[in-house]
Amino acid sequence: MKRSLFLQGVLLAAVLSASLAGAPQAQAQAIERSTPLNTVPDGAGGFNAFYGDTFTGAQSGSAFIDLFTFSVDGTPFDAAASVTSSFLDSPGSKDLLITGFSLYRYDPQTLAVIGNAIAGVDLTGFGSNPVDSWAVSGLNLASGAYALRVDGQVVGASGGSFGADLTVSPVPDAPAYALLLGGLAACGALARRPRKRKAA
């Protein structure tokens, strides 16, 4: 009887270890954050914003998706943004691996993307563990709600961080362009006009 109980215990242990060996390994959870940008007017009808995120060593190995939202009302606008990772306490290795940077318009009610996202350009240099650098720009965009999305992975043992900036400028309307061109034409006509000499 004791021997059969012992064999049952060994058999149960073998079954449990086999099932655990076949189970998928636990993976780090993806970090998803959404933050409205704190914008600063530039005095010319546009605005600037500085933003970023920091990850701890406990988040090492995790993928992340950060959304930074803003809205523009009124005239069409141009937007330019950049993002750069920084090094912390992981000598000889990269702290963050930024894998994507994009700008898109979305519906604030449903959070659905409107139109196509504008993909950023990877400007990361070469060499051993270069600092990640990305840029994105959009011209003559319609007013509405927008998001800047940063995708990546925390690879440093001590975590990592990135910093970014955004510049939004209104696009002058057609009458403003016409006024500018008219002013330039008038300046050109005055410059070409022959000058009369004063009689002594």
UniProtKB/TrEMBL annotation:
Top-level taxon: Bacteria
Keyword vocabulary terms for this entry: Signal
Signal peptide span: 1-28
Entry protein name: FxDxF family PEP-CTERM protein
